[in-house]
What we know:
Chain A is mainly α. Chain A is built from 24 helices and 4 strands. The longest helix of chain A has 36 residues, at 331-366. Chain B has helices spanning 2-21, 25-46, 52-81, 93-113, 125-142, 146-165, 173-201.
Amino acid sequence: MRCDSFVLGGLLGSLSLLVLGGLGALLIGRMSSRSAVRLGMGTAVAGCLVGLIVTLTALVARADVVWTMPWRMPYGSLHIGVDSLSAFFLIPMFLLGGLGAIYSVGYFGSWDDRNPGRFWPGYHALVAGMTLVMLARNGFLFLVAWEIMSVASFFLVIYEDEAEETRWAGWVYLIAAHVGVALLMALFALLGRGHGSLDFSLMSAPAGAAGGFFLLALAGFGTKAGVFPLHVWLPEAHPAAPSPVSALMSGIMIKTGIYGFLRAVLLLGATPIWCAWVLLGLGAVTTLVGILFALAQQDIKRLLAYSSMENIGIIVLGLGLGMLGLHHQSPLVAALGFTGALLHVWNHAVFKSLLFMGAGAVVRATGTRVLNELGGLLKRMPRTGAAFLVGAAAICALPPLNGFVGEFLIYVSAFKMLFGQPASAVWGVVIWVTLALAGGLAAACFAQLFGIAFLGEPRTQTASEACEAGAWLRWPLYILAALCLLLGVGAGAVVVLARPVVVQMMGVAGVEGVGVLEWPVRTLLPLTLLALLVALLVVIAIWAVVRRRLMARAPAVRTSPTWDCGYAAPAATMQYTSTSFAQPLTKGAALFLRPETRAQLPQDVFPISATFSSTTPDWAQKKLYRPIFEKAARQLGRLHWIQQGRVQWYVFYVVAALTALLIWMVWS
Amino acid sequence: MTSGIDSLLILLILLNLILLGASRLHNAVRMVAAQGFVLGALPLLMQSSGAWKAALLLGIGSALLKGIVFPALLFRAMREIQVRREIEPLVGYASSLLIGVGGLVVCMVWGARLPFPWPVPSSLVVPVGLFTAWTGLFLIMARRKAITQVLGFIVLENSIFLLGLLLTDAMPLLVELGVLLDIFVAVFVMGIMVFHINREFDHINVDQLSALREDAS
C-alpha cells in the first residue's frame, strides 16, 4: 500500500513539475532567456529523475496502482494507473526526457537567439503528454494525452521554421498524426459503445469483431510507430526537428505506438490467428524497407529515421512471434518473442537517441546534415566520435552491446518456431531471412555512416573546421554509450524486469508451464558470460593503452594524414562518397528503391565536366499518398465557396446548424 | 409574481424589436443596457426556493456589468475611435423588424414544444430566451460594424443568462459567474479588435476583413 501511494504521488509530482516548469519557461522566456533555459532544464531533469526512480520502483515491486477521479466530460474520467506495461515504457521515457533536456542546453547553447520560451514548454508538454499516455486508463483521457503529445511534438518539429522543408515536414507530421488519431477515436468509440463508458477496464471487443478492431488498432498506432506504409512522416519529421527532439521522438515517442498497440491487444483479448500473420508480414516488410531506404540516404538524420523504422519492424516481428506462439500454445516461442520485442524497445531507445544526439553534435559542429559534405570528423571530435561509434556498433547488433540481445531472443524464438511448430515453420524462415538480411544491411549502413562522416578526410571546408562538442552535449552521449554496454552485459537483469510485462501479455494461464519464463534468462546466460568476458577484454585493452601512455609520459603519437593508398596527391573528392559506398547494395534493390539519378557522363577523350547526383525519395509518399491527397484537395476545393471570409456568414452557418438541430429535436 | 415576470419578459421582447429597428448606435447601446437592467431584476422574481443571496448577487452582478460597465466601455470605444453614428445594416431596418416578428412567432411555437425537465416559472421564459438568442445572432449576421457585433454577442449572452435562470436550482452559481466572466472577456477582446481594425484599416467594418481570407489557388 505504501508503495502504491509512493508511485502515484511521485508520478503526479513529476507531472506537475513538468507542467509548472513548462509554463514558467514560457512566462519568463521573453524576459530572461538564460533563466528560462535554466528553469526549463532544471524542471525537466528533476521531473524525469523523480519519474525514473518511481517507475523503477514500480516495476521492481510489480506495482499495479489505479487512481480514479470523476471528470465532468462525457465518457471521460480521470482514471490513471501504473502497471508493469506502463512502467516498462515509462522508464526509458523518463531517462531520455532527462538526458534530452541536458543535451538541449548544449545544443541550443549560445548560438540560438530564439526565445527559449518557445522550445521548453513544448518539450515539457511532450514529456508530460507521453507520461499521461502511458498512465491513462480511460479512452477519452488517453486520446487527450495522445493529442497533447502529437501537438507538442509538432511544435517542436517546426521549431526551426525558417526553412521551407521544415514547415513542410511539420505539415506531413501533423496530417499523419491526425489520421492516426482519427483511427484511434474510431477504435475507442467502437470498443466502448456497448458499455456506455470509455474506461479501459470496461472495454471489450464484441464477439467475432476482434480481428477488425485489431486492424484498426494496428493502423492507428502503427502510424505513430512508423509501420510500413504509414511511415511517411518519419523521414520528414526526424531530420527537420532539432536533434534533442529527434532523439526523444525516435527514441521513445514512436514507441508509444507500440505501447498503445500492446494496450489495445490486451483490451481485445483473443484475436484470430491471421492477426499474428499480418503482424509478422508487416514487421518483415517494415524492417526491410526501412533498412534499404536507410542505406540509400545521404542525410544523416534521415538515414537514422529510416533505421528507426527498421527497428520498429524488428519489434513488431517479436510481437508477432509472441502472438503466434500464443496461438500455437507454445509458451516458449511466445515468451521469447515478447521478451525480445520488449528488450528491443529499451535498447533501441538507448542507442537510437545516442545516434541522434551524436548526429546533432555533428550538425552543430559542421552546419550540415549531408553525409557527402562531412569526413574526417573522428580526428576533430574524438570523444563524440567514440560515443557515436558505440551507438553504431550497438545498432548493428554487435555483442556485447545491447542491440544484440533483443534480436538474439527473437532469433531464438523463430528458431523454436521453425522446429517446434511445423504449421508455422514458414514464418520462422521468413523471420530468419528478414533478420539476417536486415542485420547485414544495417551493418553496411552504419559502416557507411560512420566511415563517411568520421573517417577519411574532410570533404568540405566546414567539416575540416569542426571542433569538439561542449560538455553539455557530450555527457548525455557518454551516459547513453555506457548504457549501451550495460544493457548488453546485464541483459539478464532486463529480462527479469520485463518478465511481469510478458506475463501480462501472455495471460496468467499461458505462463503456467513450468520454467517458461526462465527460458529467456537461460538463453542469455552464456551470452552474458561471454559479454562479460568481452567487456573485461575491452577494459584490459583500455587499461593497457592508458598505462602505455602514462609510461611513455610524452605521447608517442605521430599525426599524419589518413592513409591514401599511395596516391601522390590525394584529394578529398577521391574518397568514397556515401552513395558510392552503398551503390553495390542499393543497385541490387534499385527496382524497389527507385532512386532518381541525374548524370552528365564524361564525353570525348579529354572530358571537361561530368556530374552525377542521385536521390532516393520515398515512393510511398509520392506514389501512394500524393495522388490520394491531391484528389481529395480537388474534390474539397469545390466546397471553397463556403469560405466567404465574412464573420456574418460564419455566424449564419452556426445559426443554420443550430436551427436544424433544434428542428430535429423538436420534431423527433 | 408571474405577472411581474411576464411584464419584464414582454419588455425584453420590445427591447429586442427596438434593437432590430434601431438606426443609431447610441440608441442601440442604450437598449442593450436596458436589457441588462431587466435581466438583473429577473432572478429576484424567479428564484423559488429561498436562494435569496445567490439571486441577489446574480441580479446585481448582471445589472452592474451589462447595464453599466459594458455600455460605458462601448461608449468610450465609440468616442475614442470616432465611429459614425449610423448602424450601416446589411439587411434594412424594416425587413429586420419583419424578420424579427417572424422569428418571434417561430420561437413562440417552438418554445412551447421544447421539453423541459423542470417546472418553468412562466410559459414565456423559454420562447423569450430563444427569441433573444435569435435577435443576438441576427444582429451579428446582419450588421456591418464591429461594435454592433459586440452588441449582438451581449444580447446572445443575455439569452443564455435568461435560459440559465431556469436552471439556477440545478446549476451552481459558479457556472453563471463563469458565463458573466466569459462575456466580459469577449467584450474586451472585441474592444481590442475594434480598436485594431480601426487603426489598421481606417474603419471598423467587419465585412472588409474578407480581404484577408485565403483564396483558392
